[in-house]
């Protein structure tokens, strides 16, 4: 048995965590299914019935093997960095603040703002604080301010946070849900140079083609 079982759908947020799996060189099996179907018992793994989901088959030398279930792409990706500390994808002491700030900012305000815009949801000006993300422009401008001065999410080097933040901007620029500002375009060009990104993207591209999506 592989160390991990990865549950995903071809055209989905699963692509975010596949990138992370390849960054750490994880030994994993995949379970790929379509939007209209789910494997039997999948809701026991994720009651939200959505992907990605990752099961870590934790083996212990003295027995007592057991599984850990992780859902939510940002959590999955950071978990993989922690379970593979030798890969150098965790932040050092001086990078931690920026690492967690922008990882969760992308998983929260950025994603919420992009989805709200795509859905055509209008937030009244007096309710922007209540919405959490403010407005799409406000959230993107905050991220732009950082990426205009730093190459990566945690600062000057690539960390696991960039698999999540980078995925948001790769996807957003590709489909037009995020405007092509110079800082965003330059950031995307940096992160897609990663060999692990190319490996993971090739797998998902083939799955998407086979699924006809």
Topology:
Blueprint: E1 4-9, H1 14-23, E2 28-33, H2 42-45, E3 53-58, E4 66-71, H3 73-83, H4 96-119, H5 128-131, H6 136-147, H7 161-175, H8 182-191, H9 195-211
Parallel strand pairs: 1-2
Antiparallel strand pairs: 1-3, 3-4
Tell me what portion of residues adopts beta-strand conformation. 5-15%
Shape: globular
Summing up helix and strand content along with how strands pair, one would put the structural category as alpha+beta
CATH topology of the largest domain: Glutathione S-transferase Yfyf (Class Pi), Chain A, domain 2
**Ends apart, CA distance between termini:** 30 Å
- The largest sheet has its strands arranged as 2-1-3-4
Largest sheet: 4 strands, mixed
The succession of helices and strands, N to C, reads EHEHEEHHHHHHH
Total number of helices: 9
Low-confidence stretches: none
Give the fraction of residues assigned to helices: 40-55%
CATH C-level name of the largest domain: Mainly Alpha
> Based on DSSP secondary structure assignment, what is the total number of beta strands?
4
